[in-house]
Amino acid sequence: xxxxxxxxxxxxxxxxxxxxxxxxxxxxxxxxxxxxxxxxxxxxxxxxxxxxxxxxxxxxxxxxxxxxxxxxxxxxxxxxxxxxxxxxxxxxxxxxxxxxxxxxxxxxxxxxxxxxxxxxxxxxxxxxxxxxxxxxxxxxxxxxxxxxxxxxxxxxxxxxxxxxxxxxxxxx
Length: 172
Prior knowledge:
Four Helix Bundle (Hemerythrin (Met), subunit A)
């Protein structure tokens, strides 16, 4: 998918990276379905746990914050709040799952999985993967095309942003 708007394209690229991480979690869960907790000394497992402990909490939560603070706020100021409200409610449901999964990954990376930790990791990982897949699909199919079609150069009615270019400069 390609978008003419740089913000939409950048968010789409971040979505692709998120889906790649989701697929790695799903693959781990599928491989370990019958055999219990994975060996955290396995190179692939250790790398996934490290990526989850660092990337999930920072990147996904940063991405959510950018969308809420910049994109959704701009749409709301332009009189188009419904999509942002819906997606924000999904962010609110996923944030604690991501934070907890990142913490479980950190602990497992340092100490391995105990039975309770693996059960919680499997449950939360499966739930978060399902939610993230559906969420990314909604954003890629509805939000990003919608943002690409908007005229970002006009000043919003109650806006804190003059145009999308300023939003791009403000993005970390």
